[in-house]
Amino acid sequence: MRIEFDRDTCTGMFQCTAEWDAFEENRDDGKADLVDAEEEDDDVFVREVPEDAEFDAKMAARVCPVDAIRVYDDDGEQLVP
């Protein structure tokens, strides 16, 4: 499973940080950070989701008020918009 985070879209509500500890508050920028992620495109960060964190990653995506987080299965199918 893979997670994709569009940091440019993030509005800094930090709801994702309450759901999965891979998201951290960055108060200086007013946005969340996805820990251990690589920048794939301009301000779009991706990382693999450990099996024991799949539920938390999906919840982080579901609570994002601006849909800045997307979760994909191993075949590339989007699980959470």
UniProtKB/TrEMBL annotation:
Keywords: Electron transport, Iron, Iron-sulfur, Metal-binding, Transport. Signal peptide: none annotated. It holds the Pfam family Fer4_15. One of its GO terms (molecular function) is iron-sulfur cluster binding. It comes from the Archaea. This is Ferredoxin. The lineage of its organism: Archaea, Methanobacteriati, Methanobacteriota, Stenosarchaea group, Halobacteria.
